[in-house]
TrEMBL record:
Residues 174-752 form the Choline/carnitine acyltransferase domain. It is found in: Membrane; Mitochondrion membrane. Its main location: membrane. GO terms for molecular function: carnitine O-palmitoyltransferase activity. The gene is LOC111107779. This is carnitine O-palmitoyltransferase.
Length: 765
């Protein structure tokens, strides 16, 4: 409690001798430094907003325009054709100013207006250029003249040294596809999954919808697309994520694991300190917008809006819908270890703590042998269970007193850190250890992750790291960017020969503050109920990780097949061989070419992929026929991916039409049936090399093993993969133990066999 008492800036007491005031000067200095830091950050945000508002114009270009105008004026030529005189006469504060101030003030104002007009014209023209997407559909090789000219113009107009948010106002809006196009794409996507009778019925429903109520719903959606920044993203966040009442753990949250081929230190406090420090440096760059925006082909920008809520963000439970709360700043992190919660300050005397100082603070927590308060150890299970019981408990027991103060410390933290007391590792001789590592990151014990936080950093007892991410605020590539930077900076900072953080402590850092809880018996019962629900979910999930090191991207490129399409086709083979049928397949694709874009679905099971899969087990087919069918299927998959990325997908359009129908209280048999179709194979590729800090050519061992998620359907699979360089692919396969027809182990074996058979097909002579 000493730290809590020291945090009081002043205290007073009334005695018979009068009023005694005790002022804590150190606390006042801390308050002043905190206020100064907040002011600097606010000023920095305002400055960045002004820069981004006129980008790709720059302050230097304003100075150039002003010099140009003043040069003409001094030469006796009026470049404004009388506008400067009009401004001088009609602008009140210039009309009453001294003659010299009035004249040159009018010149400056005219130059500024010309500069702003040029800046916004430039920005609008850049937006028009970024609406061109035909470059994505061109085959590899020399670009067409049209695309070459377009690319050169975008580079010319794209500005220099952009900040993270510089392109936001230049990105185009996501337009609404036509009903006819979406119906045609949808019917083509379900053709391999339905027999002739069922397909005819579905075609009839689709055409009735297209010519009937669909037209009315479409008009409303088009109006929304004119008004809203993005016609999909707000509804997607609200209805797909925040309105869900089922547990976040396994069902929604995702995870990632360490770079498993190396382990820079086995010391838990040291690894935690370096990663925490790297993440805080990343946060500082993010707040200052010093991170480079991601550019496709080093030219075409992606939307950066999702980065805004990466830190200081918490999902708050609600009765019918949750809400996301983002705090502008935080000077602490929350840490969990052996059932206790701690508040750890990350700034001291106006500066960010160094890794060696964070290491000392973390070690204090590890050495603390105090017992958890009643209910404290399992408290975070409330965030793992159903949302309504957590909402009720929060409203009843966490609205005042020490419970509210401690909950605020957790929810307002920059992020959450869990110090596990078990080791995790990768052993090529025992693949089950890597799967156990993945399970620890996906769900832990059900009570040692704060599943509502934007992310929980997990550090194991032997120095391995991973994270568990909440999904509503952003998609996996955003966390992947942070993870790539943090692990790369961790290696750059390095450790001593004994595995400790480098550097020396000159001033003792602030001690960690143990959070206090007063949980009554009804709250303890709510915690245990949520924990029981979490345990049932954990017992039902079957997760298997695979390190496929027989070959990787290198061989796939030699075959002249897109690596993503190659793996998707292997997954189709694996599923078909296990189930003797095809299924609706989901692959996540990004729509960040558009402002505030998030994801779209690529329907990977196509007529062409089914033809190839059947041919693989058809002895009547020749090697050449199979290869031709595979390349045809891969080409179709690539086109579908590009359609999804460029706003010509299927499922987000249908989802938004369904939302409009609910607002209008109109029933659509077609939409109801389409949106109830289960995704029995849900897949996602984990991106990497989003920065220039990861050199897989020189250091292939630095690649993270990626991450994964739980199954979407009760009788289906969740498959995530990361193409880790030229010779390795990591797979994360999940399903439910309660389903008698699914098995992650068998699915992994089927994937290995499918990949081996495809390789054999290409190598045969």
């Amino acid at each position: 409690m000493a730290e809590a008492h020291a945090a009081v800036a002043f205290s007073f007491s009334v005695t018979h001798e009068g009023v005694n005031v005790d002022v804590n000067h150190e606390a006042l200095k801390a308050i002043f430094r905190s206020g100064l830091r907040s002011t600097k950050k606010s000023m920095g945000r305002i400055k960045n907003q002004m820069k981004n508002g006129v980008y790709p114009a720059t302050p230097m270009s304003w100075l150039f325009v002003l010099t140009f105008v003043l040069g003409f004026i001094l030469a006796g030529v009026d470049p404004s054709f009388g506008m400067i005189g009009w401004i001088k006469t009609h602008v009140p504060w210039l009309n009453t100013a001294p003659p010299l101030v009035s004249y040159y003030g009018s010149c400056i104002l005219f130059a500024t207006l010309i500069w702003l007009a040029k800046a916004f014209t430039w920005k609008y023209f850049l937006r028009l250029l970024l609406n061109y997407h035909n470059w994505m559909y061109e085959s590899r090789g020399p670009m067409s003249l049209k695309t070459t000219l377009w690319l050169g113009t975008v580079k010319l107009m794209g500005g220099r040294k952009p900040m993270l948010m510089s392109y936001q106002f230049s990105l185009p809006k996501l337009s609404v596809p036509s009903i006819k196009d979406t119906m045609n794409r949808y019917l083509h996507s379900v053709q391999p999954l339905l027999d002739e009778e069922k397909y005819s019925r579905m075609e009839r429903l689709a055409r009735e919808f297209e010519s009937g109520i669909g037209q009315k719903l479409q008009r409303y959606l088009v109006v929304k697309s004119w008004w809203a920044t993005n016609y999909v993203s707000d509804w997607w966040e609200d209805y797909v994520y925040l309105s869900g009442r089922s547990p976040l753990m396994i069902n929604s949250n995702f995870y990632a694991v360490d770079a498993v081929f190396i382990n820079p230190t086995h010391r838990q406090a040291s690894r935690a300190a370096n990663i925490i420090y790297a993440m805080l440096l990343y946060r500082r760059e993010l707040e200052r917008e010093e991170l480079n925006p991601i550019l496709l082909n080093k030219t075409v920008p992606l939307c950066s809006a999702q980065y805004e809520r990466q830190f200081q963000t918490t999902r708050i439970p609600g009765l019918e819908k949750d809400k996301l709360v983002h705090y502008k700043d935080s000077n602490h992190i929350a840490v969990y270890h052996k059932g206790r919660f701690f508040k750890v300050y990350i700034y001291y005397r106006g500066r960010l703590l160094k890794p060696v100082e964070i290491e000392k603070t973390i070690q204090q927590i590890l050495d603390d042998d105090s017992e958890p308060a009643p209910g404290e150890e399992h408290l975070a299970a409330l965030t793992a269970g159903d949302r309504v019981p957590w909402y009720n408990a929060r409203e009843e027991y966490f609205k005042k007193g020490k419970n509210k103060a401690s909950l605020d410390a957790v929810e307002k933290a920059a992020f959450f850190v869990s110090l596990d007391d078990e080791p995790q590792n990768y052993d090529p001789k025992d693949p089950s250890k890597l799967s156990e590592f993945g399970r620890a990151m996906l769900h832990g014990k059900g009570y040692d992750r704060w599943f509502d936080k934007s992310f929980t950093l997990v550090v194991t007892s032997n120095g391995r790291v991973g994270f568990n991410g909440e999904h509503s605020w952003a998609d996996a590539p955003i966390m992947g960017h942070l993870w790539e930077v943090a692990t790369a900076d961790d290696r750059t900072m390095g450790y001593t020969e004994d595995g400790y953080c480098k550097g020396e402590i000159t001033t003792p850092p602030p001690n960690p503050i143990r959070l206090e809880w007063d949980l009554p018996k009804p709250c303890l019962q709510a915690i245990e109920t949520s924990l029981e629900a979490a345990k049932q979910l954990i017992a039902d999930v079957d997760l298997e990780l695979l390190v496929h090191d027989q070959y990787g991207k290198g061989f796939m490129k030699v075959c002249r097949v897109s690596p993503d399409a190659y793996i998707q086709l292997a997954l189709q083979i694996a599923y078909y061989r296990m189930n003797k049928k095809f299924c609706l397949t989901y692959e996540s694709s990004m729509t960040r070419l558009f402002r505030e874009g998030r994801t779209e679905t690529v329907r990977s099971c196509t007529v062409e992929s089914c033809d190839f899969v059947r041919a693989m087990d058809d002895p009547q087919k020749t090697r050449e026929e199979r290869i031709a069918l595979m390349k045809k299927a891969a080409d179709v998959h690539q086109i579908n991916c590009r359609n999804a990325m460029t706003g010509k997908g299927i499922d987000r359009h249908l989802f938004c039409l369904y939302v409009v129908s609910k607002y209008l209280e109109v029933d659509s048999p077609f939409l109801s049936e389409v949106l109830s179709e289960p995704w029995r194979l849900s897949t996602s590729q984990t991106p990497h090399q989003q920065t220039n800090k990861l050199d897989l050519t020189r250091h292939p061992e630095h690649i993270s093993a990626g991450g994964g998620f739980g199954p979407v359907a009760d009788d289906g699979y969740g498959v995530s993969y990361i193409i880790a360089g030229e010779d390795c692919v990591f797979f994360h396969v999940s399903c439910k133990n309660s389903c008698p027809t699914t098995s992650s182990t068998k699915m992994v074996q089927a994937i290995v066999k499918a990949l081996s058979d495809i390789r054999t097909m290409f190598e045969q002579h």
